[in-house]
Amino acid sequence: MKYIDEYHNPRAVAAFAEKIKSITSRDWNIMEVCGGQTHAIVRHGLDQLLPDRITLLHGPGCPVCVTPLSIIDKAIEIAGRENVIFCSFGDMMRVPGSAGDLFSVKSAGGDLRVVYSPLDALRIAQENPDKEVVFFGIGFETTAPANAMSILQAGLVGLENFSVLSAMVLIPPAMEVILSSDNNKVDAFLAAGHVCTVSGFEQYEELSAGYSVPIVVTGFEPLDIIQGIYMSLAQLEDGRAMVENQYSRSVKREGNAEARRVMEDVLTIVDRRWRGLGMIESSGLAISDKYRQYDAEEKFGKVDDISDQSGECISAEILKGTRKPFDCPAFGTRCTPENPLGATMVSSEGACSAYYSYRKLDLQKTGLE
Description:
Layout: H1 10-23, E1 28-32, H2 35-44, E2 54-58, H3 63-66, H4 69-79, E3 84-88, H5 102-107, E4 111-114, H6 118-127, E5 132-139, H7 144-157, E6 162-169, H8 171-180, E7 188-192, H9 193-199, H10 202-211, E8 215-218, H11 222-238, E9 243-245, H12 257-266, E10 267-274, E11 278-287, H13 296-300, H14 315-320, H15 343-346, H16 351-358, H17 360-366
């Protein structure tokens, strides 16, 4: 692993920006599928280094943002029960459900605890044998192995008061939904490097070939991202479409074999609803029958499949890459991180949060604030 400063080198970033300008001959839309990449792009102004003919679209790469209303409502219902300790990552606390959020349950006296790992929730279960401890298992392929491992560990120590409410999802099916839509604008993808560290990128090869779309596995530092954009653009300008690995220092084609084995043992692929994208076939990870005793839905009832709220929030269009945060009339006024209307403003990885944090001055210049 090289020193991180190498990937923040402004001269190297500027050099790739010049290369991009030199080969751009027409309009192209490139979508990053990672909230961390979105924040890096906006924070470092990488999109502002690109020629006007290149547009970066912000896809559904934020697990908090795409967790559907139905699962949020189920989490709120479980967390409000008297004998439950509900454990969650901090970002989920303010994601709006049909009525209220997890923070409002905590304010009303519910025992909600912010954790940094499912193993923290496992420890809480061991320390509170008279309580049912539920971990809110959100995330993509990146967090799925740790969530699965907590279930394996619970089985090894014989815990009976621990369960996971699964909201885990898989990235490739969502990418295919975007590509197959009638209003698709995506010409190329930057695939999330941390996801591919676990899953590898074999599964992207069929997607790239089937839709003739370049997919570049990309890291998260400024130099990673600008190089990933250059590699995508080089393919587009040459008329090529294949999977390339910019993040080779961390990602192998086959991914992490042991992590994948644990996921396949504990979890099973199911259809899942995504906030903003609707029901997507084979896009979710649920707890397999072999470990059903650790499935919160087995203990507390199934999640009701309900559609997302509509309202004035345009987060659905933002997640699809058809609109940007500044297109929302509520952005920065009726919708802020303190009073969010949608998940893309709540999450630290959401596109609206990124624009609010790093582009608020741009909004003021437009006269919209």
